[in-house]
Amino acid sequence: MKVDRLVSIIMLLMDKKRVSAHELAEQFEVSPRTIYRDIDSINMAGVPIMATPGVSGGIEIMPNYKLDNKVFSLADLSAILIGLASVANMTRATELNNAIAKVKNLIPPEKAKEIEVKANQIYIDLSPWMSNENMQPYLAIIKTALQENKLLSFDYTDRYGNKTARTAEPYQLVLKGNQWYWQGYCNQRNDYRLFRLSRMSDLQLQEQTFTPRDYQKPQLDFTDILATMQTKITLRIHKSISEQVLDYCTYDHFTPDGDEHYIVSFPFIENDYYYNILFGFGNKCICIEPSHVRSEMKRRINEMTTLYGS
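== YafY family transcriptional regulator ==
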């Protein structure tokens, strides 16, 4: 939303002396023209922004200007605190706690209780119930490497169980769903890779630094790609697992089948990941069609039965 972007730009300019329009455009994934329109809006709101042309130029808040806390509405301050707190829960970063403290300093004393109540109305905790014990230490190491442009070395296990030793230049830390990843340039593959933290071991911060190259952001939205790959299969499920199935499709795909069951048109791709989803539903789900998916389920079940013995 535009208002969120304007508030973020103001906070960023408060923290940094000068930032180019190109940097802001990349960070907020808009055009430089949009950034310049945003700057005009910020000026009109009473925050004096100046633009300096040239190679070392950029956009900055005018020197000696003190931000008036009236620039932010109660809703703005509540939204900022909710967002910062949700990220701080995941990373336990000192700098985020400092940012929260700075935002709280913008709150008028007579409004502090009201904003606290509003901010506590929404609590976002993205941390998993149980997590890998290496997660927090690894996040700290990666953040240091990002800040200091230092190489990272680690062992990486791919989804097929193959383990390789890697060194990579870190460029971005990514939280996707409930999993942490980081995007880096892998020296072994001579290309950018998105590494999943849970597949890493023996992560080490190297003393060797690197000169950042032109960064390629990872592709994180696969909605269009999945739409072309997915087909629909028909499941019959017990109502007790409706919530689990709704993680993958909407209630529009459900048709009642008696008092205890539903027929579900389920999005499916023929790979291990999706077959494991079906197995995760246990004996509360059966694939009705197509027949080849039923046959593959039977084959996999027979393999498991052989593995465990008679």
